[in-house]
Amino acid sequence: MRVSKKCRTSKSSEPKSIPSSDINHIFNHEAMLAVSHAIEDLAHETSSGELISTFQHFDNFQHQKKRYDALARRLDAVRVWGEGEPPQDSSQIDFVPIFHAELTRYWVVLFDSPDVHALLFCKQANQTDQFHRKVFAGFYSFNPFLVRCIRRRFGLLSCGISGVVDHFERYFSPQMPNSLNDFDALLATA
What we know:
CATH superfamily: Endonuclease Chain A
Helix content: 25-40%
Oligomer: single chain
Structural class: alpha+beta
Radius of gyration: 18 Å
Strand content: 25-35%
Number of helices: 5
Shape: globular
CATH topology: Endonuclease, Chain A
Number of strands: 9
Distance between the termini: 30 Å
Number of domains: 1
Largest sheet: 7 strands, mixed
């Protein structure tokens, strides 16, 4: 752990610890949507940059179509990844088909601009198809190096370089928790 030299001494007399790396979390569907929407809102307010978002299947995109059309009008590029047939009525959005089944387990919302960088990077930890029962393990970050590194990997994946998938899984896959026995507790809403 690093210690922040700029901690506010007026509110706290003790230095605060800053994690030296991003921390993996367990997210239920509500937490995933909240963090995703926060990054999308940040992108909307920034009004420039690139947004990459994965929808496990393009059918899931229809619920977010209006939101993403508005983002596409403000940003330099909006790229939506998914499995299945891409929507035909959103011409300002680049739809990228997922060609490797393993990638459908990821939930990624990445925003990169000259001044603002944000990333939600998770992998589904359970095997359900019911959205309200899905559990994801992963992290969020505002680290520009990490955001740009993952953005470049997505660029390579979009070119169809299948060897990148194995490398991606080995080095970028979020660490899965040792035990997810009590899914009901993980899925409980506050």
